[in-house]
Amino acid sequence: MGHYELPIFSFLAVLLVLLPLPWHIKARNVATLSLIAWLAVCNFMRGVNAVIWMNNVHIHYRVWCDITAKAFIGMGVALPACSFCITRYLEHVSSARYAVTTAADKRRRQKIDLCFTFGLPIIIMCLHYVVQGHRFDIIEHTGCQPHIYISIPGIIICFVPAIILSLGSIIYAALALHHFAKRRFEFEQHLRDSQSSLNTGRYLRLMGLALTEMGWGESLGLYTLYRNTVLNQVRPWTNWNDVHYNFSRIAIWPQFLIPPGDWARLMLLWWILPATAMLFFLFFGFSEEAIEGYVACYRWFRRTILRQTLPVASTTGSYGKGLGTSLPQFNKYVPPIGWLSTA
């Protein structure tokens, strides 16, 4: 029986997470753009895997599996890193010590965010080779999955960084909420005085997204760590040759070989990724800025592509006067997470 819902919702998640992209590009919030990139790329990879390996476990597209398996390892730390950078920024912009930042300050923050959201995942992907017992696994319906040799080094490399980042996000989120509660009545004025591109609504949407991701990300991360360390035996990392013996092996897992309980847990971990993308769209896809943008793009499409003559709309929104025959100029807008997809 084919699981057609897996590729359908994966590709739908890619579309939904990319819809608000133009406004986030204008905002130049690296943490949010990184979150969009990781969600879009990994959901696309999941969708392709679900199509290729639906109802089969044949070994093909080995290089594709090498790439996707490493990407899923990186995703496990990238999403909590994005959440960490978002909550760090929210705490900074809401605190009393925040003043108007210069262009140099913004560039420095962007570089730091890039180090967390892409630099750290790349390092983890490289270090994963130390605890990669064999090339990869192929699971029926879900396709390529990374393998982790469950040992003390494996736990430190593949699980601990995501948990630490999630704990850091919780601390920053608590401080940010404290700042908001302390000056909630003048908070909008505080954001305007600081010349931040945030307003109260955008601030709360970012915070809601980060808190939701932290909640299930930290819970699933701790559960995965518990299951791999307490319920399963932690093996000793003896030496390189022992851990990487027969490294080119590809493990095959038809669904009938996977106990129902393990399959249910695998599906739970699998659905977290498209659910996160859809959650992102729910927070930002129906905002006032997004709806105005949809209308503007629709009018641009009719005017430029279909060559239709449209009446000049009277606009009072954030796009200013007229729409012209080119894509509209968007306001500067700063919108706004770890689990490991392993089998």
TrEMBL record:
<dbReference type="GO" id="GO:0004933">
    <property type="term" value="F:mating-type a-factor pheromone receptor activity"/>
</dbReference>
<comment type="similarity">
    <text>Belongs to the G-protein coupled receptor 4 family.</text>
</comment>
<dbReference type="InterPro" id="IPR001546">
    <property type="entry name" value="GPCR_Pheromne_A_rcpt"/>
</dbReference>
<dbReference type="GO" id="GO:0005886">
    <property type="term" value="C:plasma membrane"/>
</dbReference>
<feature type="transmembrane region" description="Helical">
    <location>
        <begin position="150"/>
        <end position="175"/>
    </location>
</feature>
<dbReference type="GO" id="GO:0000750">
    <property type="term" value="P:pheromone-dependent signal transduction involved in conjugation with cellular fusion"/>
</dbReference>
<protein>
    <submittedName>
        <fullName>Fungal pheromone STE3G-protein-coupled receptor</fullName>
    </submittedName>
</protein>
<keyword id="KW-0297">G-protein coupled receptor</keyword>
<keyword id="KW-1133">Transmembrane helix</keyword>
<feature type="transmembrane region" description="Helical">
    <location>
        <begin position="111"/>
        <end position="130"/>
    </location>
</feature>
<keyword id="KW-0807">Transducer</keyword>
<dbReference type="Pfam" id="PF02076">
    <property type="entry name" value="STE3"/>
</dbReference>
<feature type="transmembrane region" description="Helical">
    <location>
        <begin position="268"/>
        <end position="286"/>
    </location>
</feature>
<keyword id="KW-0472">Membrane</keyword>
<keyword id="KW-0812">Transmembrane</keyword>
<keyword id="KW-0589">Pheromone response</keyword>
<feature type="transmembrane region" description="Helical">
    <location>
        <begin position="6"/>
        <end position="23"/>
    </location>
</feature>
<dbReference type="InterPro" id="IPR001499">
    <property type="entry name" value="GPCR_STE3"/>
</dbReference>
<feature type="transmembrane region" description="Helical">
    <location>
        <begin position="35"/>
        <end position="55"/>
    </location>
</feature>
<keyword id="KW-0675">Receptor</keyword>
